[in-house]
């Protein structure tokens, strides 16, 4: 049997110190996982169960960025309020369902710096109408990601500075320790909803300071122990 057209290729993320690529299966994102960001979005940051949304896993949405490089992404259509959200990305290396938080680290292959780019005006319009967020979150070039570093290389990440600069000016600055739901707790909760599989990525949430970016500006995202991510908006 053959396909009626050539199926899309699997997206592979570079891994620091390896000539192998990490094949992406699914992309999960945690919403409002820093208290200060929840407040700036107009929500009470009480520790309610985390909620999730997804981004496409294809090469139109995911933008692998080589270490030390600056990738260019286009300003998307139908928005005038294009936002950055700096995030720690967790790469799953071993699958499972109903994973206890105390065993979550054994399912992690590695970590990376990512951007959850957002058409904020479209997201808010859908939210106010009680409709899904996809047009605000799941569009082309919405998920730039720097190279992965493996768990074996950097150890578990429970804390560490996270920051984002726009043309050298710091706009987001926090610490991974300020996650409302820790990485282990996110994995445990997500695995009650989906059977996690090797290749899954989890964007763990963004700190306060999200804002709009314009064409010609460059975003630089840093998290301790991980390769920085640099993206220019075209």
Commentary on this structure:
It is built from 5 helices and 18 strands. It has helices at 35-40, 120-128, 134-137, 151-154, 183-193, and strands at 12-14, 21-23, 27-30, 52-55, 62-64, 71-73, 82-84, 86-92, 108-115, 118-119, 143-145, 149-150, 161-166, 169-175, 201-203, 211-212, 218-223, 229-233. It has a 6-stranded mixed beta sheet. A 5-stranded mixed beta sheet has the order 6-18-17-13-14, with no helix packed on it. The radius of gyration is 17 Å and the shape is globular. The N and C termini lie far apart (42 Å). The model has no long low-confidence stretch (mean pLDDT 95).
Sequence stretches where pLDDT stays below 50 over 5 or more residues:
none
Summed up, the helix count is 5
Please give the alpha-carbon distance between the first and last residues. 42 Å
Strand sequence of the main sheet, in spatial order? Answer: 4-3-15-8-9-12
Shape: globular
Largest sheet: 6 strands, mixed
Total number of beta strands? 18
Radius of gyration: 17 Å
Helix content: 10-25%
Q: What is the H/E order?
A: EEEHEEEEEEEHHEEHEEHEEEE
Average pLDDT works out at 95
How much strand? Answer: 25-35%
- The class by helix and strand makeup works out as alpha+beta
């Amino acid at each position: 049997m053959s396909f009626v057209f050539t199926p899309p290729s699997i997206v592979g993320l570079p891994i620091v110190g390896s000539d192998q690529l990490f094949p992406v299966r699914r992309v999960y994102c945690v919403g409002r996982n820093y208290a200060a960001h929840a407040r700036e979005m107009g929500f009470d940051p009480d520790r309610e169960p985390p909620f999730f949304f997804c981004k496409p896993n294809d090469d139109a949405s995911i933008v692998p960025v080589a270490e030390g490089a600056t990738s260019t992404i286009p300003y998307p259509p139908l928005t005038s309020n294009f936002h950055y959200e700096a995030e720690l990305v967790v790469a799953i290396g071993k699958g499972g369902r109903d994973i206890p938080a105390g065993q979550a680290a054994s399912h992690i292959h590695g970590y990376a710096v990512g951007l959850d780019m957002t058409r904020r005006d479209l997201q808010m319009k859908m939210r106010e109408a009680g409709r899904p967020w996809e047009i605000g979150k799941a569009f082309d070039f919405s998920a730039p990601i720097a190279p992965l570093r493996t768990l074996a290389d950097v150890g578990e990440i429970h804390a560490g500075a996270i920051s984002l600069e726009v043309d050298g000016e710091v706009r987001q600055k926090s610490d991974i320790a300020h996650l409302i739901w820790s990485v282990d707790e996110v994995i445990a909760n997500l695995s009650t909803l989906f059977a996690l599989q090797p290749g899954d990525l989890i964007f763990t949430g963004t700190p306060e300071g999200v804002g709009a970016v314009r064409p010609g500006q460059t975003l630089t995202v840093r998290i301790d122990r991980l390769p920085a991510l640099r993206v220019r908006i075209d």
